[in-house]
Amino acid sequence: MSYLPFRPNAKSIDIDNKRENSVRNAFSEFLIENYGKDYQSTVEEHRSRPKANHFNEHINSEKADKPIVGIIGGGFAGLYSGLILQSLNIEFEIFESSERVGGRIDTWYSTKYDAKDTNKAGLYGEVGGMRIPQFSNDMLPVQQLALSVNAVLKRNDLEDTMLIWRKFYYNSPVQRLRYNNMKNPILAEDSNLNALNFGVDKGGDIPMVWVTKTTLGSESFLPINKILNKVNEPFITAINHSFSKGFKKLMKFDNFSMWAYLTNVFTLGDLGEYYNPAMGEKTAHLPYNIASYLETLNVGTGMYSVSFVEIILASYDWDGSKNSYDATDQNIYMITMDKGMQHFPDACKTVLNLEKGILPEDGQRAQELIGMKPGLNGKVGYSPDNLTIAAEPPKTVPAADASAPVQGSKSKKKERVHLEHRVTHINYDEHLYEGHGGVKMTIRNHGETKEKQYPYVITTLPNGAYLNGDLKENFFDNLSFSKARAIRECNYMPSFKAFITFKKQFWATLGERQGKGLGVAVSDKSNRQIVYPSYGYDAEGGVLQIYCWAQDAERIGALSDEERVNECLKGIQYLYPEVDIYEHFAGYKPEETTKTWFWDNHANGGAFALFKPGQFKSLYPTLLTPEFNGSLHFAGECCSVHHGWIVGALDSAYNAVLSILKQAGAHDKIKQMETTWATLSSPDVALTKMSKQLV
């Protein structure tokens, strides 16, 4: 599942053909090793102070029942933190301000939705993240989590809440594209040699040399469509050869936005065999109009203002959407949660509110089922038991030889997740817990205010949510300068989504892939994308989803709710000129037929983190650094290198828990954590490697 809009436009990445390698994980470690001096010195100071191990005995006790960790936020970072702690028999409490868990994983269900009625079962859409790459080594922990949760649900006779993945049809050869008042839309399969009216002979602003069919050997192409491959190629090659040297090469341009790199660094000569003297001198950079074309077709208006490094790494994420077992398979493989992504956090909450949660054997078996670790035959494979038929892997993917599931026993209920409990203020007191120090939290629930205190707190809110809006009292007091600056400056990307119900699925009757998904239709209108449903094609009606980001989202988001729907309808009509789409529109009835979402009142100013130039090396280590002698830890997808993906929240939560365990000197618990949950991307993993190298 991804919040990110990037479309694959890079060469396939080999990474030495080693599945155990992970570009994002290696990048996280590289950043800490090369730019994390303050992070390293701070955590070492926290862990070496006299009272650092004060809670060692409590954490290692198998009878501990008093919560020692308070978790702020019930999104995936908060839920995963809790699930890890629960599996280690360390007590905690989660406080979520809204009436549900999931954070930016949020499914909209029409008031007419009925999972048991064929004609109503498809009346929903994903307000938040909606898909994950199926075979990406970086993203596998998300599937491991779902399988581990299922193991607990099954032994507690909760099979009806188990998590099932279905296929998400990201693209198709018959998805529609229309730009620049083209007379008619075209299909994706016919787009490679189509200039989409961007050429000057069609009223556009691109010189024809860029958008004229060219032949090189047996290959026919438009030169303009070769630019991004050439932009990515040097960095892909360098990283494939050496992670460390490759990232060092990439980070030379961390202070550039994607737009700045295209127009101030990349030269026409860098096009190599695709260069044509008619384009200009080899030393010249790409003109504004070319950069605009690339931004328009590949992301959204204004998105090339983000870090060049961020854009390059997004190409790796999309490459991870391919079959990692077969380099010749260039298809995109994505999955989504059957009947809505909201079921995922809901299932996590169900497990968290049981006395006993995920066992080490559950976690290990899940890792074997999806290829995070070798199975009984010593080889990795992929055959999770929670896929619908359409989501089954291709035949080139080997089956996993996994351990048998453990029987386990049913568990009593134990409430740890508290909904509609809004944390409004936290305050560190160094005298708490016999000088170890701790955090006092002010919590508001239905007008009543209460206080709690814990030796450790993990806060997982999006950075904008730390503006609590209260009279006089701040959310934080006395944060370090670097942390306060990082929270203030960390860039979030605005996003807009709309869900519009139609009485008839005209897109299916006009398409050629009924029941197989149509992918995503794209235009240059402000609504940008139509995300077709990957389900419900056996119904009469259905829901189309509109999705856009950055400036496009800001402008459409500034309208009233009904005006937003009107703009979306015009955008849909633009892509379907042969149909009167208004005839099939089910009408403007908020929550029944329509839903629009712009940012979110719980995200407070952005849908997902997307760093600006310089923020990877300047802000990333700071966002991860604990505060208040290690009593306060930060998590969430902004505290990872996986921006906009569920796994970013998981990685950050893993690191926060690991940091607490290391400070307490709980080495046995760390081993148990690694057995159950594997070793995810973590700055502390990088520190461990560094310390071993120094010995």
From TrEMBL:
This is Tryptophan 2-monooxygenase. Transmembrane segments: none annotated. Pathway: Plant hormone metabolism; auxin biosynthesis. Keywords: Auxin biosynthesis, Oxidoreductase. It catalyses: L-tryptophan + O2 = indole-3-acetamide + CO2 + H2O. It comes from Polaribacter marinaquae. SUPFAM superfamilies: FAD-linked reductases, C-terminal domain, FAD/NAD(P)-binding domain. Its EC number is 1.13.12.3. It is an enzyme of class 1 (oxidoreductase). Residues 76-181, 411-657 form the Amine oxidase domain.
